[in-house]
Structures are given as structure tokens and as C-alpha cells.
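C-alpha cells incoming
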């Protein structure tokens, strides 16, 4: 791709200026002055249009400015200079994955990254993320396995495998993954919460309630944890606790009142005066 570079008018551009332009761009980027850094990378590239480092720095600056398509184009130019560069492939994939939701393009980038560095955790982990978003779940789990081979104590790779098993309806495997994640980070809200969901889908409401209780301790402002805890408590016939949890959920988000009006989880306590007063205001 041919790039259009934005030079300062009147700038003196000679071969001897390249290093000065590039270094000034780097210093400005390090200070978070990305627009100014971009101008100096452009000037450096007017001297050396085939310079990997200036294209790579330019791509990072554009990424920081939220100009994501241009960032990918700059990383592409860097890769014409160094086709086997891990970091340009990795950053290109990260932009496609996290900012553009272009999961196919992200996968293509991470495939190249892990070819270059097959022992790198991040390449395999992000590749798993791209495959997960593409619903290529078996490949995603295999990619997370490779990430765990590089970093066996990684919380997120276990968590994401749990998410995949849960989406596939294999709740026991999901729970096993979430429990492995919690062995690494016992204070992780999402692992407790998603484990609660998995127990609830299996209709083991006692285990679900325990997980939701832990979730509310870790994040008292999350209305979903309070609401789902109320559902589990109601299924267990624990009317007072269910109403207490539901009260907190409604206080955090009023939409939970209308959800509770028709939610079958509350069928056994629907006629309780406390539920009627809280949900139907009668």
C-alpha cells in the first residue's frame, strides 16, 4: 500500500535528518504526544521510506490516536520491510481484534505471529480470542491450550475456555475451567459469576447461590449477580433471601422489577406479600 505522509511545510528533509526525526518521534510518543510524533515519523519516512522502525512507530501512534485502519496500513508497510517481524503482526492483529472487530483479519495476523514465535503466550491467547469470536470453538480451545503451555498459571486462558464450554452447553467442563481459574485468582468476580450461571443451568441452585453470593461480595454494584442470586434462592424456596437479593438488584437497576414480574424462577414465591410489594408495588 502507498501511504500519504503529512510533512510540516518547509521542513528540511535530508538523509542526515532521518535519525533526528525518528528519535524526536519516539520521544514525543513516549510522552503521549502522538499527533506531534506522527509528524516526525512522517518526516523520517520521507528520508527512508523503507524503514521498518518509523513505519512501526507510526502504526503505534495512529493506534493510540484511534485511527485504526491507518494504523493497520502502517503495520502493513512495516511488514513489507520485515515480513517476519512478530510485533508488527501481533499489533496488527490486536487492532483488528480489539478495535475493528475484524476477527478474520485478526486471526490471519496472529497465525503469522505464532509461526514466528511459537512459544509466545500472547500470540496464542489472542489467536484463541479471535477464533472464539468466530465461533470456531474447538480451534479456540486448542489455541488457549497452547497459551497455557507457555504460561501454565494464566487465569484468563482458563476463564475463556470455561466461556467456550458454557456456550457449548457443557457446563461441567465450564465449571472445571472456572475453578482452575479461581485457583489462580480467588477474587475474580467473573469466574465466580459464570460458575454460578453454569450451576444454575444444571439446576444445582445451592451451588449457584453460593457462587452468586461470592460474586456480590466481590462486586456489590453488579445487579446481575444480585438478580441471579435471587433466582437461585427462590428456586431453593428461600423466599426471604430471594426478596432481599431482588430488592438490591432493583435498587441498582430498575429494569429488574419488570423482569421479575414474569420470571419463572420466582413462581414459588410470587404470591408472597414481600414479593408482591417489591415487584408489583401492591
Amino acid at each position: 500500500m502507498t501511504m500519504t505522509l503529512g510533512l510540516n511545510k518547509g521542513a528540511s528533509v535530508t538523509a542526515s535528518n532521518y535519525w533526528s526525526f525518528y528519535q524526536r518521534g519516539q520521544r514525543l510518543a513516549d510522552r503521549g504526544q502522538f499527533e506531534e510524533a506522527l509528524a516526525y515519523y512522517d518526516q523520517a519516512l520521507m528520508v527512508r521510506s523503507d524503514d521498518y522502525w518509523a513505519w512501526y512507530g507510526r502504526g503505534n501512534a495512529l493506534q493510540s490516536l484511534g485511527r485504526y485502519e491507518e494504523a493497520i496500513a502502517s503495520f502493513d508497510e512495516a511488514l513489507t520491510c520485515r515480513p517476519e517481524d512478530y510485533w508488527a503482526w501481533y499489533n496488527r492483529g490486536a487492532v483488528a481484534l480489539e478495535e475493528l472487530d475484524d476477527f478474520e483479519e485478526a486471526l490471519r495476523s496472529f497465525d503469522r505471529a505464532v509461526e514466528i514465535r511459537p512459544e509466545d503466550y500472547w500470540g496464542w491467547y489472542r489467536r484463541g480470542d479471535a477464533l472464539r469470536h468466530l465461533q470456531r470453538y474447538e480451534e479456540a480451545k486448542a489455541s488457549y491450550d497452547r497459551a497455557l503451555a507457555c504460561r501454565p498459571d494464566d487465569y484468563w486462558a482458563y476463564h475463556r475456555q470455561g466461556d467456550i464450554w458454557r456456550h457449548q452447553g457443557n457446563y461441567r467442563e465450564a465449571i472445571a475451567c472456572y475453578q482452575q481459574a479461581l485457583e489462580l485468582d480467588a477474587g475474580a468476580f467473573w469466574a465466580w459469576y459464570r460458575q454460578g450461571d453454569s450451576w444454575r443451568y444444571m439446576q444445582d441452585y445451592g451451588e449457584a447461590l453460593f457462587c452468586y453470593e461470592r460474586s456480590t461480595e466481590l462486586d456489590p454494584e453488579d445487579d446481575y449477580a444480585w438478580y441471579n442470586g435471587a433466582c437461585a434462592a427462590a428456586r431453593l424456596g428461600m423466599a426471604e433471601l430471594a426478596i432481599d437479593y431482588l430488592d438490591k438488584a432493583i435498587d441498582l437497576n430498575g429494569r429488574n422489577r419488570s423482569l421479575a414480574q414474569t420470571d419463572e424462577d420466582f413462581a414459588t414465591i410470587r404470591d408472597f406479600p414481600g414479593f408482591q410489594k417489591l415487584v408489583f408495588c401492591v
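note: Confidence is low (pLDDT under 50) at residues 6-12.
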